[in-house]
Design goal:
This protein is largely without helices or strands. About 10% of the residues lie in helices and about 0% in strands. The chain has helices at about 5-15, 200-205. The longest helix has 9 residues, at about 5-15.
């Protein structure tokens, strides 16, 4: 059970002081559409928490447990998510530009049409992550695991994929121009034109 309520967090926001909730139990709370910019939520439990449309710009979410959390359309620009657990989380259409996701577990996460331009995903685990239509241009994915990840029509232009594991990844229609692929593993990766229905699905998403 959560150790704090949405109403209490709303009161903290109104006080205009920086929100510091380190190591708190916030699981299953509805925190959608709140402004938690610059908040320190490090090491907190946010399993199944609804953060859809929430502003978390420059927030500290390092080492948080965000398994199955809903972050659809959330603003996570410059946020620190290093060492966080985001398995099966919904980050579709989230803005993660310049966010720190180093060594983050994003296995089975939904990152469809997420904006990860310039994000740090070094050593991140993206096993079977759904990343179709995502913008990963200029992102640092060195030493990241992208095994069996869905990268259909994703933008990897200028991304650093040095020593990344792309085994069995779906790269159909993926833009990999100017990407660094030194020592990257591409065994069994699927390339070529995207499926006929992919564009329509992404447009409607």
């Amino acid at each position: 059970m959560a150790s704090i309520t949405r109403e209490q967090i709303e009161s903290l926001i109104k006080s205009k002081k920086r929100i510091v909730l380190i190591g708190q139990d916030l699981q299953k709370l509805n925190l959608s559409r709140l402004d938690l910019s610059n908040a320190d939520l490090s090491a907190s439990i946010l399993i199944d928490t609804d953060l859809s449309g929430t502003t978390l710009r420059s927030a500290d979410l390092s080492e948080c447990d965000l398994r199955s959390a809903i972050l659809y359309g959330a603003d996570l620009r410059n946020a620190n998510l290093s060492l966080a657990r985001l398995t099966s989380a919904d980050l579709s259409k989230a803005d993660l530009r310049d966010a720190n996701l180093s060594e983050t577990n994003l296995g089975d996460a939904n990152l469809i049409k997420a904006n990860l331009n310039g994000a740090n995903l070094q050593k991140a685990d993206l096993l079977k992550a759904s990343m179709s239509g995502a913008d990963l241009s200029k992102a640092n994915l060195s030493n990241a695991s992208l095994m069996a990840a869905d990268l259909i029509m994703a933008n990897l232009n200028g991304a650093n994929l040095t020593e990344a594991n792309l085994t069995k990844a779906d790269l159909r229609g993926t833009d990999i121009r100017n990407a660094k692929l030194d020592r990257a593993k591409l065994d069994g990766a699927v390339r070529g034109a995207p499926p006929a229905e992919a564009k329509d699905i992404l447009e409607d998403y």
